[in-house]
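Researcher: Please predict.
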Amino acid sequence: MPGGLAAVLAVLLAVLVTAPAALAQEADRFPGLEPGVRVYDETGSSLTPEQTSDLQDRLDALRDTGADAVVLVRALDASSEDTFDQVEALQQAWVARTGADQDTAVAILVNRDPDDPQEARAGIFVGRTLDDGNVPRDEQEDIVEDALIPPLREGDVHASLVAGIERLSDSIRFGPPVSAAEQWAADASRSWLPTAALAAALVALTGAFGLFRGRRTTDRTPGKPTTRRPGDLPPAVAAALVAGGPPSSPTPAVLLDLATRGAVDIEPESDGGTFSSPKVQVRLRDEGLLRDDVDRAVWRGLADRADGEVVDSTALGKVVRDPSAVRTALRNRLVAQGWLDEAARVPRAWLAVIAVLGWVLLVAGFVVGAIGEAPWPAWVALGGLAVAALAATVLATTYPSLTIAGQNAAVGWIAYRDGLKAAAEDEHADLDLDAVLPDAVALDLAGALEDRMKAAAESGQVVRAFGAAGHSAQLATFPWWIAFNSTAGTSASGTTVSGGGAGGGGGAAGST
C-alpha cells in the first residue's frame, strides 16, 4: 500500500474514532453563558425575540422563589440518558460561570433533532435544596413528562418552557401538585378519621367483650402434668377435646393408632435419595380391629384408593390431605358425647366478623392516614382500633366451643399433653414411644419427640407403629415424620432518568 494512502486511511480512522467522543464533549460544553442572561436558543428558530423576552421575565420572576434558572434550546440528536447528563452539566456550568448558588441553581435543556424538530428530548436538573425540598425526584420527572414534553410533540418550544417554568414555580412555592385522592385523604385525616376510628374501636370492643361474656366455662383446672393417659379415648378424639373441636389434620394420628393396633401396616416404599425424600405406603390388614366411626372413615378413604391391599404413597397423600370425612366423624362423636357446644358457633362467628372488620378498617385507615399525612390524633385513634381488632381476634380464637361437660372431659387430657411435652424434652424422663407416639402426633407434639425418635433409631429400636409387619429397623433409620409428612404432602413515551448529580441535587429527562 502506498505510504500516502496509508496516511490518509490512518487520519480517517482517527477521525472516526475520536469524533463521537469529541461530539459528546462538545455537548457538555456551554461557552456562551453570561450572568443575567437566562434564555439561550442555539437553533436560532425555536424561539422568537418576543418569546425569548417572555421567558427571560418568567425566569427573573422565578428567582424570587429562590431558584436561579437557565434555559437552553439547541439542535442535537441525543438520547434521554445523554440529555440527563447534559442538563446536569449545564447546571454546573451555570453555577461556575455566573456564581449562582449550586444548591438552588436550576437548568432546563431541550435537545431538538436537527432532522425532525418535533423529535426532541427535554431535561431538568435542580440543586440540592430543591431536590430535598419541594421539587423531589417524582416531581422532577412529572415536570418533564407532564409539562415539557407534551408541547414539544407539536414543535412548540415556547409553550413547553412556559409550562415547565410554571410547574417548577408552583412546586417551589406550594410543593408538588396534590391529586384529588391525596386531598381527600388529607381532609379525612384532619376531620372525621380520628373520630371514626375511635368510634369503630369502641363499638368493636363493646361488641366483642359483650359476646365473650356469654361464654360458659368450667371451674376445673388441668392440674399437674402427667404422662399417664387419663382414659381410653382414641388419640384423635382426645386431641379434638384439647383443641376444642376437630383438628385440621387428624388422619396421621389415626393411621399411627391403626398401625400400632395392627389394623394396617406402614411399610417403606422408597428410602429416598439426594433429591428426594423417603416415602411410605400402607397395607390394609384387619378391618375387624376398627373401633369407631373415626377409624372407619380413615379405613374407607384408604380402601377407596388401594390397589389390592396396598395404598401407595401418592394415594396415601390424597387420603391425608382430604380429612373432611374424618373431621365429620370426630365432630359427630363430640356431639354424641355432649361435649361440643353447637350454640357456640354463633358468638364465635360474630367475634370473627368483628375481628375481620376491625382489621379491614384499620388497614384502610392507615392507608388514608399515610396518604393524607395524618396528624397525631388520627394515629392515636388508629392505634385504639388496632387494639380492638387484636382483642376481637384473641376472643374469637379463645371462645370455648365445648360444653361444660366437654371442658371437664378435656381437663385430664390437657394435663396429659403438658406432661408428654415436658417428658419429650427431658432426655432422662421415662417415655414409652410405642404407647405415646399416636397421642403425641394427635396432640401436635411430633416435633418435641424428634430427639427421642433419633435416639431410638440409633439404638436399633423399632417403634411398633412401623414394625408390626416384621420389617427390619430400616424404617426407623430415618425420622419417621420425614417419611410420613413427605408422603402425606403435609408437612411513558420516552425513558425518564433520575439520579443525583456530582454537586448534589437531582433531575430527570424524557423524550417525545
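Model: The first strand starts at residue 39 and ends at 41.
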